[in-house]
Design brief:
- The protein is mainly α and about 190 residues long.
- It contains eight helices and no strands.
- The chain has two domains: about 80 residues, Orthogonal Bundle (Rna Polymerase Sigma Factor, Chain: A), CATH 1.10.1740.10; about 70 residues, Arc Repressor Mutant, subunit A (Orthogonal Bundle).
- Helix 1 packs across helix 2 and helix 3 crosses helix 4.
- About 10% of the residues have low confidence.
């Protein structure tokens, strides 16, 4: 059985195909969840919002026009829901209980500690960015969207995306340098 393109899954979802919905969910739920967590900074709230996003995809599949990729369309829905939630509820801060990336089994405890420290510092630097800059960095580097797709998700001009990306990189570079970390890009 061949893997169906996202657009075909959306077409089938519009016709009421539950298996197509399951396939789309399986393919995109992790990315949508991570995007939401970075905006709302609350894993539980992000899970609730993710359910809302996919429920909207189910209900609105017949309105998908194909002007953007399915991923961009879903992240646009996710962004709208996340920002609406943040406007309705006071901002809640998360505890620093989840840090870092998966450690390599071959790492020594010292190397593992250095990696965790670097990851923690990187997370703190990203959190110090403005919401607008953090979202652009997230969409470009973590979701690997192009400037035009980011512009569609954020509903801003492509030039604004480029400007925000420039300033976000500059600010992140300064924050990382201050934290003693090589920024990792020229």
């Amino acid at each position: 059985m061949s893997v169906l393109a996202d657009e075909e899954l959306i077409r089938r979802i519009a016709e009421g195909d539950r298996l197509a919905m399951q396939g789309l969910y399986t393919r995109h739920s992790t990315a949508v969840y991570r995007f939401l967590v970075r905006i709302v900074r609350d894993p539980t709230r992000a899970e609730d919002l993710m359910s809302d996003v996919f429920f909207d995809v189910w209900r609105q599949a017949d309105r998908y026009e194909g002007r953007a990729s399915v991923t961009t369309w879903m992240l646009t829905i996710a962004r709208f829901k996340a920002l609406s939630t943040l406007r309705r509820r006071p901002h809640e801060t998360l505890e620093d209980d989840e840090v870092g990336a998966l450690e390599d089994d071959a790492d020594t405890p010292e190397v593992a500690l250095q990696k965790a420290d670097k990851s923690d510092a990187m997370r703190r630097c990203l959190e110090a960015l403005s919401n607008e800059h953090r979202m652009v960095i997230d969409l470009v580097y973590y979701h690997e969207l192009g400037v035009e797709e980011v512009a569609q998700v954020l509903d801003i001009p492509a030039g604004t995306v480029k400007t925000r990306l420039f300033h976000a990189r500059k600010r992140l570079s300064a924050l990382l340098s201050k934290a003693g970390i090589d920024r990792g890009w020229p």
